[in-house]
């Protein structure tokens, strides 16, 4: 499917200026229909500074020509800026380089996956300087620049002609160097009124129940809140009468309470039951899984009433901990029942 030019209408910071997290709500013009739970697919470009550093490391000017399978012959600068992955490392690329060029010392694929985590091409060129000698030849090993997926934070019925997303500007610190994310840097730095390339991507495994009287339990941390904003907008517009529960986690109530006004407004209306976990506001860290355990009686009651459970966020830390908490509340048999009845749906990354 083709991409569309999406105009940026507004970019609103959701975290306090003093916070070490920069999370934004981005409003874009969009004529494509979508459903709550769907994704916005954004085609990124690589940060220009990162492109320049890669060219320097490889001894290239950027004017050299390379042939890409989908784009034909283009200058190396364009290839690195618009078409090839350099802010992330693809384990498949590492595997090819080790097999064909003898560069790398990973014993198996898992070792490659572990090495690639939060590293970019510049890290690789620093750790394995022999790869620099490949110069232009290294370009042939790079993977295509992949689109990035963002959970949609709006409902069509509430915001016709628009699509909203939450995004955290990603800047990892590895080996004393900043690693800017390709898409989040684009989304943060592109001026309001400019365009980004993207399209709607259906997420058929993360959908509201068809019956409005069915309760829903939403569990998310950080920007994992996004789809639940769309869920709530849709439920309220459609007059759904089932209970809406949200377990939301972040670091500090004062500075990182995302979408605070909207969430507390729904609570004041009696439309939402909200349990928050701000992990660093007290000596002992509290996460969403702890709030789930504190509400074990409610979790069991909602399960018995046919509730759907939704989980969105980090697959490495939060998701396993929340699934374990739900299992402690319900037991393995009821968890298996939830999955069999498609009442446990996840959007984790």
From TrEMBL:
Flavoprotein in keyword set: yes
Keywords annotated in UniProt: Amino-acid biosynthesis, Cysteine biosynthesis, Flavoprotein, FMN
Keyword match Flavoprotein: yes
One Gene Ontology MF term: oxidoreductase activity
Domain FAD-binding FR-type span(s) in chain numbering: 1-209
GO cellular component, one term: cytosol
Record SUPFAM superfamilies: Ferredoxin reductase-like, C-terminal NADP-linked domain, Riboflavin synthase domain-like
PROSITE patterns given in the database record: FAD_FR
Cofactor(s) recorded in Swiss-Prot or TrEMBL: FMN
One GO BP annotation of this record: cysteine biosynthetic process
Entries under InterPro entries matching the protein: FAD-bd_FR_type, Flavoprot_Pyr_Nucl_cyt_Rdtase, FNR_nucleotide-bd, NADPH_Cyt_P450_Rdtase_alpha, OxRdtase_FAD/NAD-bd, Riboflavin_synthase-like_b-brl
Pfam families referenced in this protein's UniProt entry, alphabetically: NAD_binding_1
Protein name: Sulfite reductase (NADPH) flavoprotein alpha-component
């Amino acid at each position: 499917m083709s991409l569309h030019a999406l105009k940026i209408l507004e970019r609103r910071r959701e975290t306090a200026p003093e916070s070490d997290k920069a999370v934004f709500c981005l409003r874009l013009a969009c004529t494509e229909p979508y459903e709550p739970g769907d994704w916005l697919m954004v085609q990124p470009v690589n940060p220009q500074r990162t492109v320049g550093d890669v060219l320097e490391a490889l001894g290239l000017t950027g004017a050299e020509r390379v042939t890409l399978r989908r784009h034909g012959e283009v200058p190396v600068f364009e290839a690195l800026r618009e078409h090839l992955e350099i802010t992330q490392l693809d384990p498949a690329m590492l595997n090819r380089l080790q097999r064909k060029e003898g560069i790398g010392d990973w014993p198996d694929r898992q070792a490659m996956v572990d090495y690639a985590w939060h590293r970019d091409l510049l890290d690789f060129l620093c750790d394995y300087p022999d790869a620099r000698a490949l110069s232009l030849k290294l370009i042939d090993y790079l993977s295509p620049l992949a689109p990035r997926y963002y959970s949609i934070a709006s409902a069509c019925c509430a915001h016709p002609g628009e699509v909203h997303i939450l995004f955290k500007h990603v800047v990892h610190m590895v080996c004393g160097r900043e690693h800017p994310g390709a898409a989040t840097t684009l989304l943060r730095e592109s001026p309001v009124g400019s365009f980004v390339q993207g399209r709607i991507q259906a997420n058929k495994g993360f959908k509201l129940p068809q019956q409005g009287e069915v309760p829903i339990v939403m569990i998310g941390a950080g920007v994992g809140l996004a789809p639940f904003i769309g869920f709530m907008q849709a439920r309220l517009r459609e007059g759904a009468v089932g209970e809406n529960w949200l377990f939301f986690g972040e670091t500090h109530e004062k500075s990182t309470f995302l979408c605070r006004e909207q969430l507390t407004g729904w609570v004041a209306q009696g439309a939402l039951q909200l349990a928050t976990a701000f992990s660093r506001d007290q000596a002992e860290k509290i996460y969403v899984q702890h709030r789930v355990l504190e509400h074990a009686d409610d979790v069991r009651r909602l399960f018995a009433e046919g509730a759907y459970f939704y989980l969105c966020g980090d697959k490495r830390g939060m998701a396993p901990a929340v699934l374990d908490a739900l299992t402690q509340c319900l037991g393995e048999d009821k968890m298996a029942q939830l999955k069999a009845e498609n009442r446990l749906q996840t959007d984790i990354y």
